[in-house]
Amino acid sequence: MPSINMQQCFVRNEQLKHYPKVSINSIPSRYLLMISSTSNIYGKCLFVLIVFITNLVHCRGLLYMSLDSVFSVQLRTFIYFLHGNWIFMVFYLRYNHNLLKQIDEHWNGLQIDFDYETRKYFWTRKAFYRYLTYVLFTLSIIITYGSQFYAWNDKDNSKLSREVFFKQNIIFYFLLMICVPIVYFNYIFQCFIQMDLPILAQTAVQFNLIRLKRLLNEAKKDEKSLNINAIQNIRQKYLLCCGLVDKIDEVMSPCLFLMFTDFVVHASALSHALLYTELNQSTQWAVVMQNSLNLINAWLFTRSTLQIHEKSLESLAIVYKLSMKTNSIHLLNEISLFLNHNEIGFTFGGMFMLTTSSLSTLFSVLITFILALPSFAT
C-alpha cells in the first residue's frame, strides 16, 4: 500500500520522492465503512457483534457482582460504557459511504491534488500522526495487559471454590485474550480516521495559505503584481474549503464532544489516583501511565483539529495585509468579499466552534471539576 510505504520512508528519515494521490480511502476507512449504516446485512450483523463484545469489556466489572452490590458500580465504569457505545454509534450513523462520497466531491472540486506541496503536506503529517498513534497504543496495550495479569495473579482466591475459580478464569482470559484485542482493533481504526479527516481539511486550508503568502511576498516587491483573478480563485477555493470542513464536521463534531468527555474522565481518574487513593506502587504507576497516554492521545487529536482554525485565521490576516498593498477599487472589493467570510473550524458537539479561547474555557471548567472532586466524595 502506498500509505504504508510513505510512513516507513518517513520514519527512516528518507527523502520522499513520490507522494501518491491524497485520499482517506485506507484500510481503517474501508473497515469502518464495512460496518456502517450503509453497509449490507453482513456488515450490520458484524457491527452488532462488535458492539456486544465492546460492552462485555466495558462492563466486565458487572460479571462478578451480586444483586446486593448493584448500586456500587463506579461512575467511571458507567461513563466508559456510554462512551464506548456513543463513539460506535457516531461512526455507524455518520461515517458511511454517502458522507465519504460527499467529502471526495468537495475535495475533487478544489482541484489541488496536482500540487506537490499539497501531497507532501498530507502524507508527511499523516505518517507522523500514525507513528505517534502506533507508539501510544502499543504502550497502552502493554500497560493494560501487564496490569491486568498482575492484578489477577495478586488476587486472593483462596476462599473461592474450585468451580467458581475455574469459571472466573475462563471469563478473565476470554475477555483479555479475545474481546480486548477486538476492542483495541476498532478503537485504533477510529482514531486513525479521527486523525485523517482533520489532516485532509488542514491540507486544503494549507494550500490557500501558501498561495496567499506567495501573493503577499510578490506584492511586497511590486504592488502592481496583485492580480484580481488570483485573489478570486483563492477566495473560491476558500469557500470550497468551508464546505469540505463543514462536511467533515458531521463526524468530528460529536467526536470532539466525546473526546472531551473521555479527557475529563481520564484526567479525573489520574488526579484521583495521585491525590486521593492509596494504592500499591505498581498499581498506581499503571493507572498514572495509562491515563497519561490517553491524555496525550486526546491532546494530539485536539491539536490537529485546532490547526484548521489557526490556519484560516492566518489566511484572513494575510488577505487583510494584501488590502494595504493596493489602491485598486476592484481589488479592494474582492478582498472585502474575502474578509467577510467566516472562519473555518470544527464545532464542539455542534454548540460552538472549537478555538484556542473556547478550549481554554473548557480546560478551566475541567480544572474546576477536578478540584471539586473531594467535596463530591464527602
Automatic annotation (TrEMBL):
A GO-annotated cellular component: plasma membrane
Transmembrane segments: 31-53, 73-93, 128-150, 170-189, 359-377
Classification via InterPro entries: 7TM_chemorcpt
Membrane topology: Multi-pass membrane protein
Keyword Transmembrane: yes
Extent of the signal sequence: none
Sorted UniProt keywords: Cell membrane, Membrane, Receptor, Transmembrane, Transmembrane helix
Main location: membrane
Single GO MF annotation: signaling receptor activity
Keyword Acyltransferase: no
Lineage: Eukaryota, Metazoa, Ecdysozoa, Arthropoda, Chelicerata
GO BP terms in the entry: detection of stimulus; sensory perception of taste
Cellular localisation: Cell membrane
Name listed for the protein in its UniProt record: Gustatory receptor
Organism domain of life: Eukaryota
